[in-house]
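Record 1 of the preview.
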Amino acid sequence: MADPVHLDTKEAANSRGQSAATRSEGHQAPDPVGRSLGAPSRDSELSDLHIEDRRIDSLTSRRRNPRTHSAKQIRQIADSIQTFGFTNPLLVDATGIVIAGHGRLRAAELLGMETVPTIHLDHLSEEQARALVIADNKLAELAGWDEDLLALELEELAELDLDFDLEVIGFETAEIDLLIGTATKDVDPDPADELPDLDPDAPAVSRSGDLWVIGPHRLVRSQYSSALILLRFCRRSLSLIRRE
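->
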């Protein structure tokens, strides 16, 4: 019966011989963490990414893209591209199917562009590409706003002599005004905007039943349930309109 220690020694020698033979044939030993040293790493895949201009007619929108874009939003994206340039390339797979950037693609078509910047994500599997379609949109939705800083930026931009419409950033004028107004509610008010205190002993300026003419508008001081006042209001308004 062979000595077990001697047998292990021979097996180790054979193993070393096989390893040497493997290296001599151009094969690499497996990586300690289970990766093949001959395969490209994720870092090398990302470092190989580059931007390439591709013709729009060579690209295809993903048929099962769950993200929707209204005509208004496409117009906004197009305005953004005209103002700032095409700063966000489309992500496409090896066959030219769009993974991310469907709205930008439609905006480019609206602008009559022939080519768009793209980044090829050839390293993704079909399952990864499908998941990225959702992640690219959903992860952005999870971000928030520091409303004080946002209001500060909007207020300062609104005061500048811009050569573009501020609504190109995506906020409408009413939203911008509301954000600025909400953020400045704790700021000391302008003395010119302050109303004087009422003097209860001062003569009344307006009494119930009075009708005020404010340009094309009419303002009556009354309880809304008073039918008599309402009738007077209608008659006096009609007579004023006829005079005009």
